[in-house]
Design brief:
The chain has 476 residues and is of the alpha/beta class. The longest helix has 22 residues. Helix 12 links the parallel strand 15 and strand 16. Helix 10 runs parallel beside helix 14. The protein has 15 helices and 20 strands. It has two domains: 144 residues, Leucine Aminopeptidase, subunit E, domain 1, CATH 3.40.220.10; 314 residues, Zn peptidases (Aminopeptidase).
């Protein structure tokens, strides 16, 4: 919980205080006088360094944590966010006051500091509560500011909590997060946020002819779902559709994954989590945009009825798809969702998916791969990602690669070529289902959706990547 404090020094023995400081900074006056010595000599002001000062019972709070910010001329809001994240993660007292005034510069206002501090603290303190255990009591934070920053705290809290909700969706074990569970979560979110909602089950998907989703779903005991949320915040403006891959577990199908590759496949629905998190921000912060969230969700499993190599699926678009790899299933459920988004009238479509290991090979775990058929739309994505402090890298589309997907004797297209640049091949497959006149972006988050090692900015597991970027993008 974060709130703004109206007092400069909390009168509570459970409190500790965080004081940011630049290399050029110096604490003096009442504080050092009350402690009885000049603690400036003990401080490490290098960026990210934390110096703990005991008050020895001389003050109303028990400890002072001084957070080094380095040189003021080198600070950015991104670096400030990292500093606040690191301090929130390492300092574990029950109640903490953070004096924001010392972080202000000529370029960064107290309102910007409050925004990044709020988001950084909430996301850094995220922890997945283990199954069948009680939640721990959260640390309480108070932000001390020279001006009223309550609005900034409120908006940033929505953003941070939505990112954390996306992390929880991704971290949930797949037996607790089936397509039906994901649909139930979406319905509750819609109710809480005032969104329109429509959930299509297998019988509905059969009626409309969504054969690609249904084909992938055939091996699972759990029905598929096509989850549709709608937000209208910009009158008669054109709709942007956010399409999120909701593969709640991916065994690889008959192209079975090896044992090492099977662990972590619960994260294959992080695209859907990103879209749901973005919709939470969009609705709660009342952004000026018209947005659809469209989430195809299923498992990819093995059974006597599961789809196989050499099968042909008829997609919602009417295009036929020869199956050459049952582990290239994400693009199959996404292609039907892209067609559905077009049918609903969306003029811009962004799909986000943990799609290819090839993207991890190309970009690692720091950059999300991005593809687009529109220079203007991609430029908007770059602006949104920069504002969100998220890293993207554009990868190429190319007609020569697209042609390789059309070498089938029995269908219009194959779902995998098994060679070449895998991330681009997957993107070109999806591109085939994007109609003329539609601006489209594909985000491959295979490398960025989860983190096996806890780091200074967050916890091990799902990262909540692209939640904030998607929310920022829809207004551009």
């Amino acid at each position: 919980m974060i709130k703004q404090s109206k007092i400069q020094h909390p009168m509570d023995s459970k409190h500790s205080v965080i004081l940011p400081i630049y290399e050029e900074g110096h604490f003096c006056g009442k504080l050092t006088k009350e402690l009885g010595y000049d603690f400036n000599e003990d401080l490490n002001k290098d960026f990210g360094e934390i110096t703990k000062i005991s008050t020895m019972g001389k003050l109303a709070y028990k400890s002072i944590y001084v957070i080094g910010l380095g040189k003021k001329e080198e600070i950015t809001t991104k670096k400030l966010m990292k500093a606040f994240s690191m301090s929130a993660k390492k300092i574990t007292e029950a109640v903490i006051s953070v004096n924001l005034n010392h972080a202000v510069t000529d370029e960064i206002s107290i309102h910007e500091v409050a925004t990044v501090a709020t988001e950084a603290i909430i996301t850094a303190k995220y922890e997945f509560h283990k199954i069948n255990t009680e939640k721990k009591e959260a640390t309480k934070f108070e932000l001390i500011a020279s001006e009223d920053v309550s609005k900034e705290i409120k908006v940033a809290t929505v953003i941070a909590e939505a990112i954390n909700h996306a992390k929880t969706l991704g971290n949930m074990p797949s037996n607790y997060m089936t397509p039906i569970d994901l649909a139930d979560y979406a319905e509750k979110l819609a109710k809480d946020c005032g969104l329109e909602v429509n959930i299509l089950a297998n019988k509905d998907l059969e009626k409309i002819g969504a054969g690609a989703i249904l084909g992938v779903n055939k091996g699972s005991i759990h029905e598929a779902r096509l989850i549709v949320l709608k937000y209208n915040g910009a009158g008669k403006a054109a709709y942007t559709a956010l399409v999120g891959k909701g593969l709640t577990f991916d065994s690889g199908g008959y192209n079975l994954k090896p044992s090492a590759g099977m662990m972590g496949m619960k994260y294959d629905m992080c695209g859907s989590a990103a879209v749901l998190g973005a919709m939470e921000i969009i609705a709660k912060n009342k952004l000026s945009a018209n947005v659809y969230a469209i989430i195809p969700s299923t498992e990819n499993m093995i059974s006597g009825e599961a789809y196989k190599c050499d099968d042909v699926l008829i997609s919602l678009s009417g295009k036929t798809i020869e199956i050459t790899n049952t582990d290239a299933e994400g693009r199959l459920i996404l292609c039907d969702a892209i067609t559905y988004a077009t049918q609903q009238g969306a003029k811009r479509i962004v799909d986000v998916a943990t799609l290819t290991g090839a993207c991890i090979g190309a970009l690692g775990s720091l950059y999300t791969g991005a593809f687009s058929n529109s220079e203007v739309f991609y430029q908007s994505l770059e602006i949104a990602a920069k504002k969100s402090h998220e890293k993207i890298w554009r990868l190429p589309l190319d007609e020569e690669y697209a042609k390789t997907l059309k070498r089938s004797l029995v269908a219009d297209i194959v779902n995998s070529t098994g060679k070449g640049p895998g991330a681009t091949i997957a993107a070109e497959f999806l591109h085939e289902f994007v109609e003329d006149g539609i601006e489209w972006i594909h985000l491959d988050i295979a490398g960025t959706a989860s983190d096996k090692l806890a780091n200074n900015a967050g916890a091990e597991g799902a990262t909540g990547v692209m939640v904030k970027t998607l929310a920022n993008l829809v207004e551009l």
